[in-house]
Design goal:
With 450 residues, this protein is α+β, with helices and mostly antiparallel strands. The protein has 14 helices and 9 strands. Strands 1-4-3-2-5-7-6 form a 7-stranded antiparallel beta sheet, with helices on both faces. Strands 8-9 form a two-stranded antiparallel ribbon. The protein starts with a helix and ends in a 6-residue tail after the last strand.
Length: 450
């Protein structure tokens, strides 16, 4: 009874592990994930259970003794007396009642064990599957594989009737006569150009020193997505270099390192810090004009990002993960239904800047687009409607590469923002209200702090 329960429990666990491996495999295939921890560990558990199953039933894989006896000749079976009681059979107490089993009755009907009858050879049941069963199982697996391949090949992405919302949006946002109608629709007012987050003390990044000597051509040639990082923390200057490459203001008019449609800059940048010299772990919002970090959450959120990123482990091991969000109304009021195209384009511009800046500084980066939107939105404390997460960019040091931009993290005097000198540039780049707080520039949008 004990061994039967163990076999039952093992079969249940095998079934559950197989289902997990199948479902996570589908997720890996559909989302084209490079590193998916649930699928990897599900495979390990399944392999371990299979090994235990084989170990417990190793005799099943050996040739059957009964089958060998059948090949050598018939096995004589002693006659069975229908009136014999259980006491006459081995292993039964004397005086027990005399039931006649179904097997005994069947054997009597066949003439086996009846008085005066000639005993027949009883064919023993073999616990091994027949060759027909094995061939049927392999055939079923082959048919399933072919059916899955055929079903996948029939999924066409070239037509809208399949329910592809992205193709529907692309068609509906195309320029044409319907654009004349959209001009009469109220697309809302223009929001504040800069975002103010939180009331805590900011962390000012050190000024960016001399740029790395690697050329743009060399950075483009060497750039690769990096998912394995050296076991060291980033320096504060390395983080400042990457942040400035992503969102730095480079002109008195407020223009930045990455292009933006209409210079509206709908992207916001958050930095999840795990290991950076001189900066406490936590989630920060980037104040682009002061090149400072505004605290959103204290403590490392690397584990949360790994879970939100569908178990991709390098999101936890990276010293820094940049979270890009889109504040859609900044572009929507002007570009109407096409604004979402522009916001996504700008996410690509910023990400490429991060890639090239990281490559030049001896670092590496990897963009992640497969994540649980709701969980990431909750982490950065946005509503997912007016402002929503667009992507994650893990950044870390390349193995065997010493720090190219090493500096003193204690240097926290940022270079003055362009508008601090009195030249504010166009009206869209002017802050609605500015104040000085703890040595860093703090900006409040028109509708108050978020």
């Amino acid at each position: 009874m004990h061994s039967r329960r163990v076999r039952y429990l093992l079969n249940v666990l095998l079934l559950m592990a197989a289902v997990v491996a199948l479902l996570t495999g589908v997720v890996v295939d559909q989302l084209d994930l490079n590193d998916f921890a649930p699928h990897r560990w599900g495979g390990y558990v399944l392999a371990a259970l299979v090994a235990i199953h084989v170990g417990l039933r190793w005799r099943w894989f050996l040739p059957s003794r009964a089958g060998l006896r059948q090949r050598t000749g018939p096995v004589a079976t002693p006659p069975i007396d229908a009136g014999a009681g259980i006491a006459d059979r081995p292993g039964t107490p004397p005086g027990a009642p005399v039931p006649v089993g179904v097997d005994d009755t069947a054997r009597l009907d066949e003439g086996v064990g009846s008085p005066g009858s000639t005993p027949h050879a009883e064919v023993p049941r073999s616990a091994h599957p027949t060759r027909r069963v094995a061939i049927a199982a392999m055939g079923a697996g082959a048919v399933g594989a072919v059916a899955g391949w055929a079903a996948n090949s029939r999924l066409s992405t070239s037509s809208y009737p399949g329910g592809d919302v992205s193709l529907f949006y692309h068609r509906e946002s195309s320029l044409g006569l319907r654009g004349l109608v959209s001009n009469v629709v109220d697309w809302g007012r223009r929001p504040a150009p800069y975002l103010r987050v939180g009331e805590g003390a900011v962390v000012t990044l050190p000024p960016v020193g001399p740029a790395p000597t690697m050329s743009v051509a060399q950075a483009l040639e060497d750039r690769r997505s990096l998912r394995e990082y050296a076991d060291r923390a980033l320096t504060a200057e390395e983080l400042a270099w990457v942040v400035r490459a992503a969102t730095g203001i480079t002109s008195p008019q407020g223009l930045r390192t990455a292009p933006s449609a209409g210079a509206l800059y709908p992207l916001e940048t958050y930095v999840a810090v795990s290991r950076v010299d001189g900066i406490d772990p936590g989630l920060y919002h980037v104040d682009v004009r002061a090149q400072a970090l505004e605290p959103v959450r204290s403590g490392s959120v690397a584990g949360d990002l790994m879970v939100a990123g569908l178990g991709q482990g390098f999101l936890r091991s990276a010293p820094v993960v940049i979270v890009l969000t889109g504040l859609f109304q900044r572009s929507r009021w002007k570009y109407r239904e096409r604004h979402y195209r522009y916001v996504c384009w700008e996410g690509g511009h910023v990400t490429q800047n991060v890639y090239l800046a990281a490559e030049a500084a001896g670092l590496g980066a990897c963009m992640v687009g497969a994540f649980l939107d709701g969980m990431v939105n909750d982490l950065v404390r946005v509503d997912g409607r007016n402002e929503a997460a667009l992507g994650l960019v893990a950044v870390g040091p390349r193995a065997g590469s010493p720090p190219v931009m090493a500096g003193d993290p204690a240097r926290i005097s940022p270079r003055p923002p362009p508008w601090a000198s009195g030249h504010h540039g166009p009206a869209r780049d002017c802050p609605p209200r500015v104040r000085q707080r703890r040595g860093a520039i703090r900006v409040h949008p028109v509708d108050g702090p978020r």
